[in-house]
Design a protein that fits this description.
alpha/beta, Rossmann fold
């Protein structure tokens, strides 16, 4: 298995980045970190509040600073926010500093996993399925652009995805 000291998880909301990341970190004997959790810890506010007060652009500014710093951490599995790949600076940092895994989930699966979650600011306005389709149309090519590995998460438990990912990485 390649020596993985920095594994970065990208993908849409509902793909399981945080949950799968925790299991993956255990398997790889690395620590787990999450850019959204780091932003909340540094600001003392949750993501929806930041979106309300600063707008998406203000949130993305904070996210860019955190991605720049956290992609330099060693010995980490890092879960990123679904939109972290929107800024070219973030894509460059992720692609050049670690092994990027795209956790792919279909829009139908994203809808199923996020339907009761009120902590997703982008899904609070309009039809969530339509919003998720629009987001995937823009973001899927960007996830694929920087991914070193793609794994589908539909109809799988987070633990089984992490185990499958470890197995697939060992084969490479």
């Amino acid at each position: 298995m390649p020596a993985l000291h920095r594994v970065f998880l990208v993908g849409p909301m509902g793909a399981g980045k945080s949950t799968i990341g925790k299991y993956l970190a255990q398997h790889l004997k690395l620590r787990f970190a999450d850019t959204d959790a780091e932003i909340e810890a540094r600001t003392g506010a949750d993501i929806p509040w930041i979106f309300d007060v600063e707008g998406e652009e203000g949130f993305r500014d904070r996210e860019q600073l955190v991605v720049e710093e956290m992609t330099l951490w060693d010995g980490v599995v890092l879960a990123t926010g679904g939109g972290a790949i929107l800024r070219p600076e973030n894509r460059r940092a992720l692609a050049s500093r670690g092994f990027v895994v795209y956790l792919y989930a279909t829009v139908q699966e994203q809808v199923r996993r996020t339907r009761r979650d009120r902590r997703r600011p982008l899904l609070q306005k309009g039809d969530p399925e339509q919003v998720l389709r629009q987001l995937m149309a823009v973001r899927d090519p960007l996830y694929r652009e920087i991914a070193d590995h793609i794994i589908e998460t539909d109809r799988c438990s987070p633990r089984s995805v992490a185990q499958r990912l470890v197995s697939e990485l060992q084969e490479h």
